[in-house]
Ketopantoate reductase N-terminal domain-containing protein
Amino acid sequence: MSNQIDVLLYGLGAIGSFYAFILTRNDRVRLTVVARSNYDAVKENGIFLDSVNHGQNRFRPHHIHLTTSSVHIKPSTRRQWWPACSQPSAKRPPL
């Protein structure tokens, strides 16, 4: 059994960016994010968090995607993920 935890986070606004920061602090988490409006900035510079409680931090998710349709989903978990990826911009994967 793998100790790696794959996490898909949709949206990198204030709350999504904070959760991304918390998740990346765990070495077992392999974080994939969908960043639509700030995709280019995140791809080029990573995410910068300036927090009174956590200080200033720059970090990078493992994978960054512009839409959910480009996220690779294991065939065995497609039925579980489909509700999260059923945006109009996403193509329905074969089930």
Observations:
- The longest strand covers residues 5-10.
- Residues 12 and 84 are 15 Å apart (CA to CA).
- The mean pLDDT is 80.
